[in-house]
Amino acid sequence: xxxxxxxxxxxxxxxxxxxxxxxxxxxxxxxxxxxxxxxxxxxxxxxxxxxxxxxxxxxxxxxxxxxxxxxxxxxxxxxxxxxxxxxxxxxxxxxxxxxxxxxxxxxxxxxxxxxxxxxxxxxxxxxxxxxxxxxxxxxxxxxxxxxxxxxxxxxxxxxxxxxxxxxxxxxxxxxxxxxxxxxxxxxxxxxxxxxxxxxxxxxxxxxxxxxxxxxxxxxxxxxxxxxxxxxxxxxxxxxxxxxxxxxxxxxxxxxxxxxxxxxxxxxxxxxxxxxxxxxxxxxxxxxxxxxx
Length: 292
Fold this sequence. Notes:
Order of helices and strands: HHHHHHHHHHHHHH
Shape: globular
Number of helices: 14
Helix content: 55-70%
Number of strands: 0
């Protein structure tokens, strides 16, 4: 094509730092994500749950509210590690639903439409591409788990005083670490299934089955053979074991002692799942040449 007017000028504006270029992927991905009414509904429910938790924290410290409802502070729930653990369990449930909704299409669309070479032919490495895709989920799931969790912890510390803060500092650590582990496993599993299963419905079903079916099978095997080691193949059970330990909650209160895996086995099992998902991504997300 002939060019008659030489009006082209190179871009002379500010450039994004190379270390932050991966954020261009979630910036454009969120435009489509927030068009889903189902996504907005689930995200709104998670916010409502956080508001309810904030009210539970606030009520014992408000004399007027106690008089209005004619209850004493002793009758209300004592907000401690177990209350934050229950809240995080609910939030991670919402996080799982959001992952099922938006995770399976993050990589599959690029592979189906041969868009991956367009990314990697630019100054954009494969780790940066995966980091950008992962950040779509990491940012959203963080806003549902450890970010509001730490705000609730600071709110409770402000109302209860420094003594409560110093005695329950482990709750803040548990909120962050347990959320971080959940986010890493959910993100990598969804990206791996998205890369290998290009049909969205099938990928969503596979992700849902990954966190439900192994748990049921492992429970059956443990009941038959009276062993807990079958739960090594259940990521949801491993996540629960790690999370309960971080919140200083004894899992043996809910199950027979022989059905509970040791904590080190929970961490080792999750590390194995993370390594497996990374291997799946490395096998599928590769640069290739498209010949027209």
